UniProtKB/TrEMBL annotation:
The keyword Nucleotide-binding does not apply. Residues 1-18 form the signal peptide. Keywords: Signal. It comes from the Eukaryota. This is Hemolymph juvenile hormone binding protein.
Amino acid sequence: MKIQIALILSIIIHGTFASVINDHLRTFIEQERQNFPCGWPDTGPNGIPPLEPFAPSRNWQMDIANAGDLIRDLKSDLSNVVVHGLQQFFLHEVRLEVIGLWMRIDFSVDILNVNGMHDTTLFFNNAATAGRGRFQSVVRNFRMTGNFAMNTIQPGNFLNIRAIQTLISFGSINVQMEGLDSTINSILNSHLPALINDPATQQRINDEVSEVMLPIMNSVFNTMTMPDLVQFMSNRATNPPPQRCFIRRGVKFNF
């Protein structure tokens, strides 16, 4: 009987602790929203960049086979991409497992505006068409769930995110690509939701997100132990974050 009572108490205590930690994590993310426009220069040149807007310096390649009934293949090289709207995120779930060493963040954004340059080729069953120029897109009801598996590295027992698994969905997308006529743009808009939801495409997106986000996140996590992280979030729950919205000249983010 004593063993059962002790077990129940330990479950209650652990559940209460986990709930407090998750509340602190949610508060921390919500409060850092104010620093999205300027990023976190104090995390170093390979640290956390500005997120509003988010402008990765790398190019993004889309190479999708069997892209639909009309499109056999889609190849597109996207450059100078700029994403507006991430600062307006809504958190559905945040969860940190202190013992299991994993974290989940589930968020959505009502509207994302994504702009940049493109070099696109579409292969149809009996023909092909290509175009290049600027592109503009409006993504509605964007949602992303990220699961982060962690371990510890020595010496120091510091945290390390070893793998990221993402799931991305959206309600609709409207893309206009220069160099492609209105009919082709209409075909793209009608096919893109199914293309993004395809498991193979989701895996490619996950690989791209992991390649970008792992070094950014580990630039912070690799400096903290789990007790450090818990204490940091606990302190932040009662103390607002410092205003980091300033530009440090001479610092270039590489990501």
